[in-house]
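Technical appendix A lists one of the benchmark inputs used to test multi-chain prediction within the project. The record comprises two sequence entries:
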Amino acid sequence: MSAMTQNRVVKAHERIPEIPEKIFLFRSCTGSMEYPGTEHCVEFVLKKLGIEIIKDADQSCCSGYILTCSGYPAEPSLAVTARNLGMVEQRYGLDTYTFCNGCFGYNTELKHILDHHPEYKKMANDLIGQWGYHYEGNSHVYHVQELWYLLLDRIKEMVVRPLTGLRIASHYGCHYLAQQYGILDEGDLPTFHEEIYEALGATPVFFKERRMCCAYAVGRGFTHPENVVQPHLARKFDSAKEEGVELMTTTCPGCNVALDREQPKLAKRGFGPYDIPVIDIGQLIALALGAPIEEIGFNANSTPVEPVLKKLGFLND
Amino acid sequence: MPRENMTEWDNELYQKVDRYNLVPNLEQCLQCGKCTGNCPVAAMHPSYNPRQIVHDILAGDSDRILQSEEIWRCMWCANCYRVCPVDIHYPLLMMQLRYLALENGYGLKYVTPINKYAYRAFTGGLTFIPGQRGVDKIKGLREGIGVEPWPKVSEKAIAEYGAIFEQTGAVDWMKALDEVQAKGEEKPVKLSFMGGRLIDERYDTE
């Protein structure tokens, strides 16, 4: 057994031994364009938790997504990762927190390659050196969901809008769970999102295909035709509907696009209809912690969230 | 069956595929098939079989694998990698296999359409910037929740991001693919691993 397999699942307090006072928040392209509420709510919750946020306009896209489509060679993505993470190390000396499984997965993978292949690290550093950057590899990449879980007791105390009785199911996202180098939970049967739902007063629901990939699938409509993506998604939603799921959460704006935007298109194909709203877990926590509803950004969703808010009695707030 | 008709074998196929030396342990593959058992694409489309693809790369069945349509179905979910008993990084293998297919003229239609977003990323520093209507919608949504209308990406970030792609030859690589396609030199892909397959009746393709 290799070293990386041994250290796959790590407890929250081992993974993040010290609760950070200040973090670098890595902007997600999809999370700030398709669902701007995601970024906004992540910042809302971090502020509530008393964690200072550093962002930097010099950070670029992580460049991983199109790489996984084989859209360009690997060298630019390695250099972009070295540039972004090197900039954070040099300017702030902080760990990087992402709120997108894509940014998390690609930064982690590419960082792993840079750290284990000196020739790529040198190539990247030679390239980014022209602008004064240097990547050393002495910081970590985390996902904010790890903080939510680590600080669950604090979050529980601050709930002002309990989500009593709401049947929520989780979509964890492959690019978090399929990581080999340290995640919070077991990839086959993760439960830490369900613990978060309970802390917010909701009822966690397990459904058969909960671990199934979102099929956003490296470019739906580009690399993947509908006849690959849609029956796959229908299988997931059929199984969720069977268990009476009322709301689904994600930790990845990319998964959110697939699961939310695709539902009306599935209905047109004769699947469903499902009408299961899909939101980010940061939006869910912000909702429970009393963020103004109009600031959560539910109006970006294609499958309306309003029925759930009405059921909870939050719309007359 | 294609298997019997294949004549082009390439003993160095594995080395050619793993050009970045990111999957050095492929020869440790046990052919156990856990990758295929955990693969959501294999569950829907039985002719896509990661175990078989690993086998064919090691055997050097170059013709069959490069012109295969199946290799474009991987969703990159990495669950094969998660369950692999010898830690073979199948997604990185797939990424590199696709490079080789592209450079041999196959599968360009699966990649060049997404490159318009790559070109936009060079001038915007963000991936998946939509057209003008989409941009206006995003600005409206962002202002509606009380944040600045567009994510803060500096000119410096955009310039350096674009320069990295220029200087690593990535832009030339992409343009070369566009040219092959424009000249009509793209070669057709075909289902290499199964004569027939299960197709959902809603789709009347093939």
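Chain B has a mean pLDDT of 88. Residues 2-104 of chain B form a domain with the Fumarate Reductase Iron-sulfur Protein; Chain B, domain 2 fold (CATH 1.10.1060.10). Comparable benchmark entries are summarised in Table A2.
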